[in-house]
Give the backbone structure.
Amino acid sequence: MMIPYQEALRIIKDEIKNISLATEFIPLSDAVNKILAEDVFADVDLPPFDNSAVDGFGIQFSDRKSWTIVGEVTAGNFINLIVDESSAVLITTGSKLPEVVDTLIPVEDIIVEEDKIFLRENIVLKKESNIRKKGSDLKIDLIALPKFTRLTASTIAAAASCGKENVSVFKPLSIAVLSTGDELIPINETPAEDKFRVSNLIALSAATTSLHQTAKSYGFLPDDKNLIRDTIAQMLTDKNDIIITTGGVSVGKYDFIKDVLLELGVKIKFWKVNIKPGKPIVFGVYNKDGKTSLVFGLPGNPVSALVNFEIFIKPALLNLLQQPEFDLTIAELQNEVKKNDGKRHFMRGVIFIENGVQKVRSHFSQISGNLVQLANANALIIVKEEEFFLPKGSLVECIRI
């Protein structure tokens, strides 16, 4: 019995919570795109001292319009110069302020004549302007980066400013991929007669690594039930976190996957979802010795397999890591869309900007074997179960891919 898309996704997200996230302690320099497994605390005030936000002249605030230059302070070369109301200090951006300096005048607001500076006309000074106060970014012992933060260039910079030479991050999950089908041949061979190159294997491995997880390829097999059973048994024995197969999930004579999973002790949570493409997906859970593995049997059609990954596996995995599940956006439909069934459709489309308006067109064949047109798409247009006709100009929800 087919179940709705939202219910299927909920079941997967509920089950993926049972996967144990392991951690590792690694150098911060190696942590790009890793997910923090700890809170990072500020070990000093940030910034650690009052400093200049601009290149300018430091003064004691007053109503004066001119001052005498008594010295300079540059970044990393602090001198606690004595400054009174009639004097000023040249201070470069990021430099620590002498104790009595409470206002910075940007160089562009000043006229310099020998050792004198004069405020330009129509410039109004404000006390404490252009000063970054000690601790204004973050006070010592407060959280700079919470657990589950993705480490990017900017967040790594924040961790470095907190003295984190090494950080605790979540280890990548092990995601195993197997393709099945008599029609499959290696990608370095030329297809003849009724054969296809095994694109699913490398595509799903690439989709896995794009999420910064570890892909393990178990190759491809003909439609031989014993070979398939032995290989999936090995995938389970190897304690992979997620197992993905393609092919053999429909109702044909040689569609063995569902039966093999049951024989191996996989508890089937659902088979067939009310979607297009990718309806025949089967999802199950395998538990042994306290280890949980999720098993996905995806259709053999390349587009169906990748769409299933995008709308089921990817969002569930990102949910587990407390990351945004989808890159959702709204766009104006540039062609009418029709469907004649009550399924939720994920139609390939191209999002673009025209005259400042985000638009999407779906002038694609929606056949589930057309990989080239999937490669040319950058979005999946969501057409809900109850929507049978969407006129041009409709606002539609899209998943960026």
The CA atoms of residues 141 and 169 lie 20 Å apart.
